[in-house]
Amino acid sequence: MSKAAIGIALVVMFLALSPVLGLMFFMPFLAAPSIMPAPLAGGGLPPGPVRAYVPSEIQYRDRSGLYPALIAWLESRDSAIADPARLAEIEEAGRAYNVDPLLLLAITGQEQSFVPKRGNWQAVMRNPWNVFGSWQRWGGGFGASAQWAAHTVARLSQGCPENVSVIRWVNGLDNTGRRANPNWGYAGDPNWWRGVSFFYGQLQEIAKGG
Question: I need a labelling partner for 123 at 20 to 30 A (CA). Which of 20, 108, 164, 195 fits?
């Protein structure tokens, strides 16, 4: 048999076997079960009742009477959260986990600048608290994201030392800047608590009528 004939025969054989080889290569991936954690895979809501151990400084209080003032303030920032329905979802999350809704709103300021209506804002609105890493990794919906954020803040607030800012403790840090919270912290950025505290202060001024 000539070299040309041998070459043609090998090409024909390869083409005939290529679907089988491809299936053998991909079969392990097709058969493998998903290893993505349940919250990332499908969402759902966090477990647990109202957290009685949340420090009094950040405990839930009804903020529904502030909606008009909050909406006006948020609209000045072109925020997608400037909507009574969105504020009601934050309110409900705060009530469920004993966290001040204004603190939850302040966290969206630090995490996503209160979601201004530009760029990928619709996608960001599905997780403006960046729970489970970021809005790009998980987009379970605004309400579910609020619930997970409230649950996380409540859990991280537990055991806050008396001489430490609660928000700093939620960040995971003590007064020396050391990561001392046994539950780690809401963010890796050691200055996260400063931004949240700044926005929380502004929102509290609105609550006072300032």
Answer: 195
**Where are the domain boundaries for CATH 1.10.530 in the chain?**
46-207
Is the model more confident about 3 or about 140?
140
Tokens of 114: 């209160």
Amino acid found at 85? A
Q: How far apart are CA 150 and CA 160, in angstroms?
A: 16
Is the distance from CB of 63 to CB of 102 less than 8 angstroms? yes
In this structure, the dihedral spanned by the alpha carbons of residues 142, 144, 148 and 150, taken in order and rounded to 10 degrees, is 70
Amino acid identity of residue 42, one-letter, is: G
Residue bearing tokens 């502004």: 202
The reported pTM is 0.78
SS3 percent helix, strand, coil of the chain, rounded to 5, is 55, 0, 40
Q: Which DSSP category does 81 fall into?
A: T
CATH number of 46-207: 1.10.530
Rg of the chain over Cα atoms, rounded to whole angstroms, equals 25
Q: pLDDT-based confidence at 34, cuts 50/70/90?
A: very low
